[in-house]
Amino acid sequence: MKYSKWIGLAGALLLIVSAFMPWVTIASKNLVISGVDAAGTNYGKPSYVHFVLLVFFIVFTIVPRLWAKRFNLLFVALIAAWTLRNFLVIGTCKGGECPVRETGFYLMIFATLLMLVSAFSPDIKIKNDNRS
Length: 132
Description:
Number of strands: 3
Radius of gyration: 17 Å
Helix content: 55-70%
Distance between the termini: 30 Å
Largest sheet: 3 strands, antiparallel
Shape: elongated
């Protein structure tokens, strides 16, 4: 794909923006949980792992080498796994309390999907070497 690098970088930027937006609201405890602020819970700071993995994703997206695109698949898979973990741990009902999912939560999932699409369709030219 011609614009896969830019789609991936837009997804990375969108993931950073979504980390600072509210992810879920727990009404009974008056808590608003975002990716960088999960005060009052045992979730830690779930977006910090995203930030570390995004550094590698951005570098390997920019580097125009085949090995970089292969490593990029690894890091986008880790980002997708961490997004799934956040979706399952933070967004599910526990003890009869169901948190209300906010915009940032869905934006995180959409950004991860954008990065997956860009990693699976890199714009790289492979030289055809016919040495027969």
